[in-house]
Write a structure and sequence with these properties.
Elements (H helix, E strand, L loop, with lengths): L2 H5 L32 H18 L1 H7 L6 E3 L9 E7 L13 E15 L3 E4 L18 E2 L1 E7 L5 E7 H14 L21 E3 L1
Parallel strand pairs: 4-8
Antiparallel strand pairs: 1-2, 2-3, 3-6, 4-5, 6-7
């Protein structure tokens, strides 16, 4: 049974046991484009990936299933070398502790996503990045574009274009890197992990 056949079974919920770790060759492969129109299997795969992200952000489900919190997941992390990513970025409560009007600033399963334009300005998260496929802490600025325009297909097979900046842009770039066989630490300056390029935006 293939990894995808196992994951799309009705009874299966993705857990950390399904996520492959660094060193697995699938994480270094350039993933295959998904055929259009989308197959039922690929649509279910995307739905399962999104379900995992929701579970990972839900304190009760995360504890029950022993999940690490995540805002993005790429199919290669499930040992499925396909160009599918899911992103789920929650909006934070305001300074007075009120819940946001919209629960998520970004919630999408993207098929065959591709960066078609990007800013000259670089950006990095102040706290650095982590990854569900990496079980160790790796410090340093992960240098990315501060703004990107991404083309992709949604689960209905419709072509979409989205412009992203700041944290959302970083999350999507991290996941697109996964489908291109790139790990986040490939983008850290080895000689000086906290080097700041001219004009680079540090996102708190």
């Amino acid at each position: 049974m293939s990894a995808q056949d196992k994951i799309i079974k009705a009874s299966h919920m993705i857990t950390m046991a399904d996520i492959i770790r660094e060193g697995n060759p699938t994480l270094r492969q350039k993933a295959q484009e998904v055929a259009l129109p989308l197959s039922d299997e690929d649509i279910i795969l995307g739905e399962k990936m999104m379900q995992f992200l929701k579970h990972s952000q839900d304190p009760v489900m995360a504890e029950k299933l022993d999940l690490r919190g995540g805002v993005g997941l790429a199919a290669p992390q499930l040992d499925i070398s396909k160009r599918v990513i899911a992103v789920l970025v929650p909006n934070m409560e305001d300074s007075e502790g009120n819940p946001p009007k919209e629960a998520y600033s970004l919630q999408e399963v993207m098929y065959n996503p591709k960066i078609v334009a990007h800013s000259v300005q670089d950006a990095a998260l102040a706290e650095g990045e982590g990854c569900l496929s990496v079980d160790r802490l790796i410090e340093g600025y992960v240098v990315r574009h501060s703004r990107v325009t991404v083309d992709y297909y949604n689960k209905d097979g419709e072509k979409q274009r989205i412009k992203l900046k700041g944290y959302n842009a970083i999350v999507v770039q991290h996941e697109i890197d996964h489908i291109n066989g790139i790990m986040f630490y490939d983008r850290i300056n080895e000689a000086d992990p906290f080097a700041i390029n001219e004009g680079m935006l540090i996102i708190k």
